Amino acid sequence: MSGQGKVVCVTGASGFIVKLLLDHGYTVNATVRSLDDPSKTEHLLALDGAKERLSLFEANLTAVGSFDSALNGCVCLFHTASPVLLSVDDPQAQLIDPAVKGTLNVLKSAAKVQSLKKVVLTSSMAAVTFGPRLPESGVVVDETWFSDPLFCEQKKLWYQLSKTLAEDAAVKFAKENSLELVAINPGYVIGPVLQPTLNLTSEGIMGLIKTGNEVISGGVYRLVDVRDVAAAHILAFENPEANGRYCMVGKMVRHLEVIKIVNKLYPSLGHSERYKDDECVEPLPYSVSRAKAESLGVEFTPLEVSIKDTVESLKEKKLLSI
Questions:
Q1: Using CA atoms, how far apart are residues 193 and 14, in angstroms rounded to an integer?
Q2: Is the pLDDT of residue 68 over 80?
Q3: Which of 38, 53, 89, 203 is close enough to 27 for a disulfide, judged by CB 3.0 to 4.6 Å?
Q4: Digit-coded pLDDT (tens) for 223-243
Q5: Whole-model pTM?
């Protein structure tokens, strides 16, 4: 097991990254917002290896020094904590400050730790494709694309702005403080859930499965399996060649293609009649390169497997009855 004897820190721990690290033999210091909230802690403490090698810490993104104790003695920081909100009253306070100042707070704590070799940051495709140069038909988007903060601000794309500014701030801080930093940029994350409550993306995909109605206007999804995202984080730490950023999109699909797969797997949902005459003929507006992620060693999960595992997991958690 490659992680034996190594201590790592995961901020905003919710599931699969912690699970995979424990499976690889690492000792994990994981931060949560509240140690008193069983919906944030119980599923982590129940993981294989948690009893021996998982310690939970309470930490707040906006409190300076809040992450010091969790990072003590660690060789890698996996910074996944950042608010995911699509509608906000006060974007600065609810999204931008926690994302940007929170990232800098965590990195300031990391910079004090002599044993720390690498930072793996969870960014987003939101920091890649939003700018005046929008992807056009036939274009392949890759890691050289960056969202434009001014464009995001003008269009009131506050979540995209928060992720763009946070990644930018992290890259600058890491350079100035001799920290090695790798960014992982996932698309819309699907797959099984470990926690007992729904997060925003699970809610979205569950709404799509139950009603057949699209949740993203435009009806195009950049989907990636949560297990592939977790694997990318760990490969980014373990592979000394890992560098820069990695777009993580397993497959780009139209809303209708997801529905067709759900229909095939779960005909009892009754979407068949509504969509039986619809065809996925319209070409996708662009594609996202998987080359760099695959060079890291990521093996993308087939979409049908991700969708089936999502539904089965939601059923098992009694969040979906079909």
A1: 9
A2: yes
A3: 53
A4: 999 999 999 999 999 999 999
A5: 0.93
Decide: 12 and 82 in contact? Cβ < 8 Å. Answer: yes
CA 74 to chain centre: 22
Enter the DSSP assignment of 76. Answer: E
> What tokens does 317 get?
């958690």
Cα–Cα nearest to 35, from 16, 54, 7 = 54
Q: Span 100-116, mean pLDDT?
A: 95
pLDDT tier at 276 (50, 70, 90 boundaries)?
Answer: low
Q: pLDDT digit string (tens) for 303-313? A: 999 999 998 98
DSSP per-residue string spanning 195-240: SSS--HHHHHHHHHHHH---SSTTSEEEEEEHHHHHHHHHHHHH-T
Angle, helices 255-265 vs 303-316, to 10°: value is 60
Q: Report d(CA 276, CA 260) in Å as an integer.
A: 9
pLDDT score recorded for residue 273 = 58
87 and 198 in contact (C-beta within 8 Å)? no
Beta strand pairing call for 118-122 and 76-79: parallel
pLDDT of residue 247: 98
Residue where the block lists tokens 């660690």: 74
Band of residue 205 on the pLDDT scale cut at 50, 70, 90: confident
Residue 91 burial (CB count, 10 A): 18
Question: C-alpha angle with apex 222: 228 to 12, nearest 5 degrees?
Answer: 50
Other Cβ atoms within 10 Å of 222 Cβ, number: 24
Rounded Cα gap, residues 261 and 267, in angstroms: 10
Among 315, 215, 195, 317, CA closest to 259: 215
Helices of type H across the chain: 16-23, 38-45, 50-53, 68-71, 91, 97-111, 149-154, 158-176, 200-211, 226-238, 255-265, 272-275, 291-296, 303-316
Distance of alpha carbon 46 from alpha carbon 24, whole angstroms = 16
